[in-house]
Amino acid sequence: MFEGITPERNEKTPGTLEKPLVETGLEHLIESSYYIGQGKDAVVFRLSTESVSADEEGLLKSEGILPEDDTGSLATKILKVYSPGTAREEMAFQEKARMALETARDQEVSVCTVPKAFVATDQHINEETEGFLNRHGANLKERVEFVVMDYVDGKDFGTVMYDFVLAETGIDEETLAAMSYEEKEQQVGVQIGFEIPSGHGATPEEIESERSIVFARNEQKLITYLRRHNFRMDPKIIDTIERSLHILHKSGIYHNDIHKRNVMIGYDGTPYIIDFGRSGKTSEEGGLDDLAALRMWRPLTKTFDEDMQEKKQQAFRDISQIAGRMMQQPKYTEKIEKLKEEVQNEGLTALTRELGRARVSDTLLERFFIQLKSLGSDDETRDVLLQLLKEMDTPRMQWRPAELNMIKRFNDSGFWVS
Fold first, then answer.
1. Using CA atoms, how far apart are residues 363 and 399, in angstroms rounded to an integer?
2. CA nearest neighbour of 44 among 140, 137, 153, 160
3. DSSP code of 254?
4. CA torsion angle 164 166 167 173 (round to 10)
5. Best label site of 23, 126, 191, 240, fewest CB within 10 Å?
């Protein structure tokens, strides 16, 4: 499910004949597979049958542990804690989501792909398999639940973002390919300054709440770093993910755990939504808002420079519209004509004097609008006026709420950058 980075194999000899054949086959299947990574609820492997005998593979298929047909590369999501029925419920939501998006795709709607889930099973495991899985982060005793599904050959959003940050520090592609996700996250955290949860709290709920707050702050730090370094996401991919989530919601499926590791881009460019372990028919209370991550990623569809230029142009359009409506009032006609004449005779020094004449009862934006209307649309003249406005002794002015909001918008848009 996650990007396969760090292969880990267990070269154990085949089990003895007295072991149940199904358990032995399952042991060989899991221990010979590639460890991909883990999340909060599960450990993920890319399955390999090279250490499984033909008899064992046939039995695993007949027992519903492996799909009957040769489907190509497979992954298995093994739940860390045994909870009867959880794997089957997850598979049901995953398949319902896959079919909903397949139906939309048949109608020529551009949507994400959901990996096909083949098997959800509840199995007894021997001590060797139990120990192996627990060493990889599980907490199992005698039984295990897991889902077998298509393997996605690509990168999750988290890996894409982390690779960009680390490449900026000079790490080459070969080194990045050999690093685990956890190693990348640790180095990115040092580079950007990720916070670490203290783990203190009177209750598990308080500990989890602190972890969530720290996670959100770290996500914002990552997004800010990426924007400032002109990282760019394809806006079509974000649109496709958003469209897919809306279709799932209309079909009664809420993912409830959309974050940067649960959205992938295949090496062929296909976007995937994965991991339906927390899905439900409603938006889970306390769960992640399905669209929250998209709102955070959306600014990455433009570079920082592109975004600043667009906001500046929009600010010009907004203030020009306001000025146009304001200047239609007869009381400003005389002032405009007078200022035009002064600028024509004295140049831009007339602006400085006009701003200096402002009485306490006047508003700065009135003066600004008058001058904007007088000067026309020459960009160089506008820039001079903006710089004068920035340098004014503004504390003596009486600002109206609407004016304060407009000036905040100027600052937020980079309007004052000289």
1. 7
2. 137
3. B
4. -100
5. 191
